[in-house]
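Appendix B, example 12.
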Amino acid sequence: MSQQAGYSPSFKRPAEVMRMRRKRARSHAGVCSSESGQDSTGSPGQSGSSPARVRPFSPGPLFNTQNRSGGGIKRRNPFANIENTHSPRKKFVIHNDDGNAAATDSSRVKRPTEEEDEAGMSAQTDRQGALSFSASLTEAERQEHRDVSSKKCLTVSEDDSLFEEEEEDVKNPLLKSPQAIAPASTAPPVCREYPADWSLKTRLLFTSPLSLSWAEQPKAQEEALGLSQHCRAQFSALPHSLQDPRSCPELRSALQQSLVYWQHPSLPWLPLFPRINAERSFTGKSTPWAQDPWLQQSLMSEWSVSLSSLYSLLKSRLCPYFYLCSCQFTVLFRAAGLAGSSTITALISPTTRGLREAMKAEGIEFSLPLVDEEKKNKDQQTVQQEEEEQDHEEGEEDCSELNQGVHCEAAEEEEEDDDDGGGGFSWLKEMGVQDKIKKPDSITIQLRKEGQAVALDHKPESVVCVEGSHTFTLINFLINCKSLVAAAGSQAGLPPTLLAPIAFRGATMHTLKARSVTVKSQVGSVYQNISSLEVTGPILPSSLHAITALLRPSQRGNFSAALYTHTPTAVMNICPAQPQCTTCSVDLSGCGLRPASIQQLQQPCSLGKSALTHISMKDYSYTWKN
């Protein structure tokens, strides 16, 4: 057997085995002598207690029993191994030169009682004024060095791995200090609100450890109250925390109020959102207007009235925003004061070169925010590089070389201008092959210049921003644009979908679909009941904020949400081209939204061309991913 901690190197010697057997007989003989009044310390083989003091299974060497009062003889079983003798408590015994034993526990130092001795526990006693844990270890290390020369014994009766952990803690006292246990950084800041997300959502999935069954089908009276409050723009105040949401009718009414949106046109048998890449949703459905020009004209006439009504409400700040969803692009109109802008803004995504050229022909001024930002960054890098190169050249070149370099640069600029104009082929004459190579015509050169503009089509970088009075011109352009309505396919002759959070002329009231389900989710090795709430439909930014505001008190500040974004609208979180107005004084109190939702939507955009994908609230503090 290999040597392990807690075994003596003399274990292999047969003489020791025989000596242990002889001492076993003396131990039994010493019991009778102790009962007749003999001294228990007179012989090393005698015991001063009952025979129960002798431990039949205790691996380890024999200890010196001189000067030990009341202690039994601890012997070693030669057939025992370390696996079946693990002590449930961390304990190690150190015998000093004077023969006294110090038994130290990892939690406390305890003197064994006679009941423990009779039950077969350790018969060792502690000396008064026991050493501390670190001092005992120091004493143990010294004793190990003494054992090399004088063969003194040091026995450890505990689990080796646990002992090593305790020893490491002693070697590193800072691990147990309060400074080391205390967190190095302060607690994260409490975020009471998440950034505004102007993209349209197709699905929301809320999960919470608390039940969401209160969001199930409301009563008729609660639903009617919610619809009435939405039309009248009345909002009920809820407490900070609800103990029993199921017994709160105001909460369910407020949920119905937050699920309402307005849409035009409304065809019950056709899903009119989303419209981009939605041919499969229209396939096989009845479209009587596809082959009827008069019916198509009637639909477009009614749609034009609804769009004009929406823009009038937006301009008078009675409507905060609305969406126009066509089969090719989506337009977001925002009132003045929202997203940090002091004027009305419109974002169109995605666009094509043909659409942008048509807008230019109508006199609509617009900008490409992402392209302009990229060019601005490139220009700044180019200016910095030129300044560095210029500083380097000024330090090395003299005046004549500098003048020559300026002349060369001017010549190169003239050659570049000639190349742009189509006449920069002087280098062909120098080679004598100007007659053998066909020069590109003006059309080829023009297409080469426009190649970069065409490459933006149908990409997020093609988003267009229209601001101020040009948004009114954009409305007229959209009403008269022939390409706004598909001429062929499953959506042929169908006007774009208009979505708004408030009522407008020709609109139909719709509600989002909400469904509450309780499922079992595996958390580690245990399955827990997780309540979920699924919301589907064209989810507007104000609806998302209103629902999360209701879940805050009902779920006691603990829930999470997965957000599914309509991809073409994710880029609508970019900042407009004009400087942002962080403190806009535009009054939007009459737009029909909650004051908290208005305050959130007034903040400047901070998500860029990405959208929120996950929102989580814990202890009334928000975290999010985009």
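The chain has a mean pLDDT of 75. The chain is about 35% helix and 15% strand.
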